[in-house]
């Protein structure tokens, strides 16, 4: 072989080595600023990828992100100049983390996603209309609502920068008035009739029907109605309303705005039940970002739980520290005081964890007893002499114990708590004497919507013992405004004012299909319960028929070739 040929062979080998190294680096480095150059350089690579589509699946593209995202919040905080901007940055949402099927796929694999109904994708109707950043299977909701829509839900910006308001049309308010009439008079049959015969996109009605299904144990169908309500509200977003930015605000006192808070909260609840705390944390960040100053649904009482379960320890610590600097005093919440200490412990920052746990135990000793009782753990004699006492009722503590007691069941965590308790017992420091706290309205809303076993509101907890609590709008603010149902015609309710009480009772009882008019006082209650049971069965049957009809429609579309191409489905799944 000549010298010229040897040099040429060496050049070719060098080029091949450089190309191989480029292939390895491109997977981890961000694409160059010159997009056209990037596309040209990868043209040959794209041909290889087509032959390996199963490996480089679109789902995995969407889910390919750095697992240790805990570093991101710290960088954001350091780069931000103002404390308010720091809070906004910590509440910034990653869109790919908002759909729980992505987390299901990462944790349990593709089969679990199929069991949940598949990835979100259009299933009829215009593709653009079906896209959603919040819910899966948006196309199915779009198909289901055809022909039975009230419409009239819009969003407008207010005079305050970054603040928005939902607006309802006159037709929507008319339905709202009928809905309020049905709820106030216990006309559940009329409520069901509205759902079946006339409408499918009234948000408060969907929330109420969802709550009925949940109480009967139909949790998947209950979650489906909440997703539909969320989809309706999302379709009304103003173009400038970017929920993922962490900067857009909604005044909870405005009646039309409250539906988004409540549907997001219930959506996070259902996502958590599916074992997806990372997605639930992202949704909770969205809720808090709407009003981080007042936190109208007290979402701060559950965000720590989602963060610990999702192993987002650094995010929780950074969030806690920024809020403290901003004067929010999160260390005054028992859940935050203990969870932040637990986050430091899991990061192996033991000195800091010991210090924070010591402060939490001295300030909230009732949490230790509640957690120990929940886990059926006996304190040793030394610790029991300090902490095992009778404490007054505290709903904040009860919530935390019910939600987070299992987080302290690990052997190393229990040993850590025991060590700090013994240090306190051998020191002159003694825990503060807990008192019964005042329960603000946002806590009452939180408990009503959370459905935590073992934590129920009693008449003594209510601002007024006889206050009616609605699941679709619990404990509205005293400064509430924007409810136009009060300006609607009273539907001849004034004629009831002059009627005897017995006549009114007979009228209300007549709404119960099992009432015959011959019941005595003892039989009325059991008859009413049977009527409610029949009603719930009807709702369950209705939802079953809806799901069957939806599946039949999807199968028919697939048979006719109406479904979008696979790449279109993947595009929708990434939204």
TrEMBL record:
Q: Name one Pfam family in it.
A: Tcf25
Q: Could you tell me where the Basic residues compositional bias lies?
A: 42-52
User: Where do the segments described as Disordered lie?
Assistant: 19-56, 551-575
Give the matching InterPro entries.
TCF25/Rqc1, TPR-like_helical_dom_sf
Single GO cellular component term: RQC complex
Annotated signal sequence range: none
Protein's recorded name: Transcription factor 25
Q: Which organism is it from?
A: Galendromus occidentalis (western predatory mite)
Q: What is the lineage of its organism?
A: Eukaryota, Metazoa, Ecdysozoa, Arthropoda, Chelicerata
